[in-house]
């Protein structure tokens, strides 16, 4: 099948059985690849009520039709599972070089099932596919294991590996690859860990069939040329995502001291130019990327190196926990990567613990003697390790902010900044209603990458609760995740302003099938609705109340940063949801109406 590896690999870790099946053509038609394949397999194959950390849950890693081909940023794969953090749909995108090897091994998805009785790793070298003993690697850090596998098998092999966070079932454990690229959110690493799968090591040599070689060459060249000519290329590759740090600080969107404020007095020390000057030593990109956003940094104070920190980490492990030194933030980033936990959730849960400490809900007796004041760098470092090891106070935080705050009570729930159990990523949304709605309705919880709507808020008027904003969020949610479906990166479109139609030509030349953006957005809408049905199937009483944001964003003014444009009433939050549900074709409780499911050809699948 043109543009595809051609097979789905199934690995049952309980029995050790490994099988392949052809990738169904109707699956490529209706769900295309990547995140679409993951959403389909999760809904169809994981039984209702499965324990996220039990053998019935599956972990599905998928490439897309662009993955591994000479298209800018075609280095993304998707990891889907039932989330141990939220109890709903989880899908985490991972860059680097891994997805290309999935395709070169002749695969589109790898479905990991069951639970191994002992630690193993999955070894794939074209058709040689084996589960091997991982006892020598269990208990070691992500970077150590990746290095050992590279030394053992060679640099051509790509490695996706969990750290102690994943081994210990931390609800926001990640999967690490290429010494600093992660499938970060939703606890995909914990699912891998409870399956006792330490790593996947993969290499392939097969060609990916392409329908129209000359057309593909031309479309690829046009895309690379557009990137090369883009006005923003220089700034983007100089600063990467940290280009927005100063902007967020200025507009009051930089999460500060557990989102109680939107601008940070130490923010200037964390801005992109400061980071570039003080710690960045080189740039690092994913497969086929002409605009590398990865920044490789050296922290002289600690004698260490890290890929990062990118903006989200600076927001969550910098200003959100009161740290105003870029080397300290970068070191916290490194610790999370090595131990195998998501930097965004780690910053969210530590920020919550610090605020609860400040309010007297915790004392040193609860925190293993740590003084959890905002800005205490050593306490942050210590907590990252304790979380990964589930040690003492870290065991509580390892559950994620929703469960931890419910367990503690005493009003601490009020300081838990999350939606559906996922810690909010690094945009304070006191006065950005489109971004607030994007978090409220995101299909994995409060994550930014589906609909990065904050610039639209500034454009339209921050406080406005208007149908145009809602329509914009819905369009972004249908369209942007298509890059995760195609197996490519959205950032060339977002940051360099690449004409999205260039991707349509490339996709047609590769697969031999014409798909307009309207058609692709409809697939995006299908996936969005399927995921909504998944949440509803797995969580009794699921509906509107699950979409509510932290009251912090409408009950309290931000302590710093602008207060202009904040919505202050729950009624306005509900008005946003009313408009959103109506435009989505959902009922008043936020569930897709039968006619919406019919329109999207989902009736049979969800029945
Ligand atoms: Fe990877 Fe960044 Fe390039 Fe996207 S822009 S492909 S995330 S390096």
Describe, in plain words, how this protein is organized in 3D:
The protein has 607 residues and is an alpha+beta fold. It is built from 27 helices and 17 strands. A six-stranded mixed sheet has the order 2-1-6-3-4-5. Strands 8-7-12-9-10-11 form a six-stranded mixed sheet, sandwiched between helices. Strands 13-14-15 form a three-stranded antiparallel sheet. α12 (326-339) runs parallel beside α14 (377-389) and α19 crosses α23 (517-538). The mean pLDDT is 96. Iron/sulfur cluster is lined by residues 73, 75, 95, 285-286, 289, 291-294, 489, 491.
Span between termini: 30 Å
Radius of gyration: 22 Å
Quaternary organisation of the protein chains: single chain
Mean of residue pLDDT values: 96
| Sequence of strands across the biggest β-sheet | 2-1-6-3-4-5
Largest sheet: 6 strands, mixed
